[in-house]
Amino acid sequence: MSIQWFPGHMHKAGKEMAAKLPDIDIAVEVLDARLPWSSSNPLLDARLGDKPRLRVMTRADLADPALTDLWLADLTAGSDAALAVRGDAPEAIREIPARLRTLLPGDRPRSRLGPRTAMIVGIPNVGKSTLINRLAGRAIARTGNEPAVTKRQQSVPLGEGWALLDTPGVLWPKVENPASGYRLAASGAVRDTAMDSGEVAAWLLEYLVEAYPERLAARYGESLPAEDGVATLEAIGRLRGCLGAGRLVDFDRAGRLVLQEFRSGTLGPITLETPAMRDAERLATEERRVLLEAKREERRAARKAKRRKRA
Length: 311
Known about the structure:
Number of domains: 3
Radius of gyration: 22 Å
Structural class: alpha/beta
Number of helices: 11
CATH topology of the largest domain: Rossmann fold
Number of strands: 6
Helix content: 40-55%
Shape: globular
Oligomer: single chain
CATH class of the largest domain: Alpha Beta
Strand order of the largest sheet: 3-2-1-4-6-5
Order of helices and strands: HEHEHEHEHEEHHHHHH
Largest sheet: 6 strands, mixed
């Protein structure tokens, strides 16, 4: 799925975040535990440079526990640290200040005067503001179950010589991997008005039929057809009364129902990707990029040849 949701305020927020990065000491990247790779902004690696980073996977209570453990092992295989936070048991948030001090010990040169600053970064609707409020122990950042709630940066004192810099959720201009686009849309990182709910739900059901058939059966019944995502979505639409004129299934309405049940955890703990899927999709994306560039080069060469012929 091609993500086309990159509004002006997001472009502005990305520029402001890049301008602040030289002044921060450490980044706290907030990821969705259901899609740890797809919810990570690929532009962040280059922008951070050698600054340390703590990855915090939110909504771990909505993710597959076994795959969350697998992702934690993968994310901590390098120099970065990571932890998972459950919405129904946020005790792990208390570990964050200690983790920050470990990653940035007291004898490390400071990037600037004043408190050490940890920038909270992440895509829209991933739980950054909720994390800020729990760390601060009070409601400071505005929260909401929709993308693009935070519109501007704000600094939050954390105590013990630390401050948090809250930033708006930022996607990137082009999501090259189609599966990542579907995952972002299914998770709620993209406004529902910027996507086709039926198409996204059909993709999600296609994945669930393969990876979590027991969850679908438990929610919608053992007789649910599972030939493909569209047939499964149509059956769910009929089962739940999502019908329009002529008693035909309203796929948009049925899709919104399925997406809501996934996002709320009603379908059970589900993770949409694994490290192995990431590696395979990275390779496929790079192959598509090389092929596309080769086609562009062919067109450029053809245009040059035409100009020479006319001359």
